[in-house]
Amino acid sequence: MARIPLVPLDLQEPKDIVDAVRKRRGGELSELDRLLLHSPQFTEGYNFFLGKVRNNLTTIPKLRELAMCTVAVVNKADYEYNAHLPLFIEAGGTAEKGKAILHLETAIQNTELFDPTEIAVLRLTLEMTRDVQVSQETFELAKQTIGGNQQLVDIVGTIATYNLVSRFLVAFELH
């Protein structure tokens, strides 16, 4: 149970904001939405922003979901990990890789399981999430494997965004 009660599942007001969230979610409100809707204005901005990050960036879906799962692991945001693991698998990842990142320090070294781009994403995500600062070595690896500047900005933006998401989940103990 979250630290504050969730708004009702059948919430209707403010209509424009609730409808926009339902549209992005395919009709239903998630538990996270029901937490965030305590602040309609925050939810409105969050919904727009997350919609763009999830649907309009150049990031390869498998790498996006790998980054999201990795943020969740580092921040101990089980809700986020459980929500994104099936999406990672659907996007071309594997259950084996999803399980491996639960032991991130080992996973980063596993060049048999993860390709160089995936390792770059894992390292970038770990350093951004745990340390905030990214080593020059990791940054260069990311530049070499992830693609051009737009792809690099998009993956860094995705990692930063899902740190925001996980911090909400953890602070409010939404598991």
Could you write a compact summary of the structure shown?
The chain has 10 helices and no strands.
What do you see in this structure?
The chain is mostly helical. The radius of gyration is 17 Å and the shape is globular. Helix 4 packs antiparallel against helix 5, helix 8 packs across helix 9 and helix 8 packs across helix 10. The protein is built from ten helices and no strands.
Count of individual helical segments: 10
List the helices and strands in order.
Answer: HHHHHHHHHH
Beta-sheet strand percentage? Answer: under 5%
Number of strands: 0
* Low-confidence runs of at least 5 consecutive residues: none
Q: Mean pLDDT, rounded to whole units?
A: 96
Summarize the helices and strands and which ones pair or pack.
Elements: H1 15-25, H2 31-36, H3 40-55, H4 61-75, H5 78-90, H6 95-100, H7 104-107, H8 116-131, H9 136-146, H10 149-171
Helix pairs in contact: 1-3, 4-5, 4-8, 4-10, 8-9, 8-10
